[in-house]
Here is the input.
Amino acid sequence: MSKQGSSFKDTLQNIFAVSVILIAFVISYFLFTKVMGSPVNFEGGNPEGHALEGNYLGIIYKGGFIVPILMTCVLTLIIFAFERAITLSRAKGKGKINVFVRNLQNLLANDKIEEAIDACDKQKGSLANVMKAGLSRYRDLQKDKELEKDQKILSIQKSFEEATALELPMLSKNMVIFSTLASVSVLIGLIGTVLGMIRAFAALAQSGAPDALALSQGISEALVNTAFGITGSTLSILAFNYFTSNIDAYTFKIDEAGFSLTQNFAASLKEK
Here is the structure.
């Protein structure tokens, strides 16, 4: 891939990420103002008053203007979790990876390189792409009469490394979103908590009887933001760990398959 093509692709990915965040915010703001802030969720139809007992939409609305920002974080997390799940599913290709690798090993043992390349074309995964690059180089090196044995082994190893380097960015793309949301969500929630507690203490500081409505709203705001912040952070950490473990396991399979092919190639050179 050329540098211009790679740069253009990166630009599209950045535009996609920004677009997702903006769309998530618009949806969150609409839900916050039109659904959660609907008069039917409050006593006397007044959003400034108490939420109806057991009405969680009204309770969340009392969390204040920080809530739609936290909802944006959660919605962004959900969207990118689906994006990662779809991308990793495509990267695994068709069928079971272990069966595919064993099939390749059997074909290589019988020197059926062309059939192995066809199997990679049918599998259509990242592992298949890496193996296809190695197999193509495998056949070329078998025909090469000029390079020494060690040079041929290094050449096929380099082919695997280059092919793997092209596939790994796709596997790990957007993972930084999860790690960022894990820390940002809880910090934004903490801001909402502090603002809520400021409102609550301000109600207590009034001369005479404390303003019960302002006090309850301040405490509600603090707790709602705390809950949203912790929820967004927890889900982000879980998503990050889940996808990271899947990517690591898949990368290990790619390395394992590449090593197997290199060893097979070295053995075939010894036989000659």
